[in-house]
Amino acid sequence: MARYTDAVCKLCRREGQKLFLKGERCLGPKCAIERRAFPPGDHGRKAAFRRKMSDFGSQLREKQKARRIYGVMERQFRRYFREASRRKGLTGSVLLSILESRLDNVVYRLGFADSRAQARQLVRHGHFEVNGRKTDIPSYIVNVGDVIAVRAGSNKNEYFKDRTQLMQGGSKSPGWLNVNFADMRGSVLAAPGREDIDIQLNEQLIVEYYNSR
């Protein structure tokens, strides 16, 4: 399966905002945006002062930003867009709802990981089950009523022991999810709406990008 393996901090610099790709590092002074708030590359400083971006450039940047936040490659992202186009509702909002419903994102939102990349790795290593069945596919789409839990064998892992204490100390999941700290499990209460997604993103520009191609 194809995945991005290069340095992720420069992705935030390219988009000009924090994408929170490295968990706690993004909140501290070592964050790349705090240290070098200009695009990467030899001409990064000059690029920050270039002329106003075109409409196509703005649409492309929003699409790339969404892809990078959720860790999705182009071909898969395009499939998600086609699926969103077929469903009822605003295509942009439906697209974000689909992305939010990915298992790796749900694991991250529940507080079991510091970043989506870390959540993706935990899922791939088989630490989670959905409705009692081991599921190691990060792109698995959860549905309302699904129960996501740390597997019994993984509960003994030092990472999850420490995570339990950390989550009880103040971890907060979004309203469409419910988390049980003691049992290290969570459930999907409702489909995520646009108001539940705290991401600085103009999804309408993504729709315009694909509709213009």
Structure description:
- There is one protein chain.
- The protein is an alpha+beta fold.
- The chain folds into 2 domains: 9-99 and 198-211, Orthogonal Bundle (Ribosomal Protein S4 Delta 41, Chain A, domain 1), CATH 1.10.1050; 102-188, RNA-binding S4 domain (Structural Genomics Hypothetical 15.5 Kd Protein In mrcA-pckA Intergenic Region, Chain A), CATH 3.10.290.10.
- It is built from 10 helices and 5 strands.
- A 5-stranded antiparallel β-sheet has the order 2-1-3-5-4, covered by helices on one side.
- A hairpin with a 4-residue loop joins strand 4 (177-180) and strand 5 (185-188).
- The chain is globular.
Task: State the gist of this model.
The protein has helices at 9-15, 32-35, 44-47, 55-70, 74-86, 91-100, 103-110, 116-124, 158-168, 203-211, and strands at residues 128-130, 133-134, 147-150, 177-180, 185-188.
